């Protein structure tokens, strides 16, 4: 994705071929699911790699691989979540919200923030994109919100910079709000 977005199509194709071969081997040709913790990278993988691969971002992985295996006990605090553009494009925005509500007693979704404006890695070189996209964020977060969650580290960097709170991977919240269910033996 990093090569492709910069116009290096030959290098992008080479890296995609290498990644595909490695993932097909590791997953036994798609028998086992592949987890990728960065939703934007995963969306690109879904668009370019072999369709036999079962590719999951954190939200999809948790909701499809752990039903019945985890017991959710919501933490007693107010949080916020951000659906990346990739999550939204993949139709997982609602799943992200449902999962967050399984993990915390109150979830705030800023309505005016639909994209963080980081744009891959451009937030590092063009911070005004991120600042502009997130201009309304801080005013939409009640003072009770002390932490935010998402599924892209680069988005989380920009969200943290412009919200006044720390954003991190949703997986941390899921880990805090769950325990492994003990299987029932009949």
Q: What does this molecule look like?
A:
The chain has ten helices and eight strands. It is α/β, with parallel strands linked by helices and 186 residues long. The chain has two domains: 2-63, no CATH class; 71-176, Rossmann fold, CATH 3.40.50. A four-stranded parallel β-sheet has the order 5-4-6-7, with helices on both faces. Strand 1 (34-35), helix 3 (39-48) and strand 2 (55-56) form a beta-alpha-beta unit. The longest helix is centred in the first third of the chain and has 18 residues, at 9-26. It is flat and about 50 Å long. The N and C termini lie far apart (49 Å).
Structure at a glance:
The protein has helices at residues 2-5, 9-26, 39-48, 58-65, 85-89, 93-103, 122-125, 127-133, 153-163, 170-177, and strands at residues 34-35, 55-56, 70-72, 75-81, 104-108, 147-150, 166-169, 178-180. By secondary structure, it is of the alpha/beta class. A 4-stranded parallel β-sheet has the order 5-4-6-7, sandwiched between helices. Strands 1-2 form a two-stranded parallel sheet.
């Amino acid at each position: 994705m990093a090569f492709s977005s910069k116009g290096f199509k030959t290098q992008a194709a080479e890296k995609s071929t290498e990644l595909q071969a490695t993932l097909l081997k590791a997953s036994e040709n798609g028998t086992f699911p592949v987890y990728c913790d960065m939703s934007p990278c995963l969306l690109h993988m879904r668009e370019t790699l072999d369709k036999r691969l079962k590719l999951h971002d954190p939200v999809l992985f948790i909701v499809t691989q752990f039903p019945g295996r985890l017991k959710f006990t919501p933490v007693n605090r107010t949080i916020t979540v951000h659906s990346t553009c990739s999550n939204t494009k993949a139709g997982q925005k609602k799943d992200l919200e449902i999962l967050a509500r399984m993990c915390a007693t109150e979830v705030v979704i800023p309505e005016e923030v639909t994209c963080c404006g980081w744009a891959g890695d451009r937030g590092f070189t063009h911070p005004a994109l991120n600042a502009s996209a997130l201009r309304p964020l801080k005013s939409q977060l009640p003072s009770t919100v002390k932490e935010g969650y998402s599924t892209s580290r680069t988005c989380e960097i920009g969200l943290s910079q412009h919200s006044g709170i720390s954003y991190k991977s949703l997986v941390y919240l899921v880990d805090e709000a769950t325990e492994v269910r003990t299987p029932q033996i009949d």
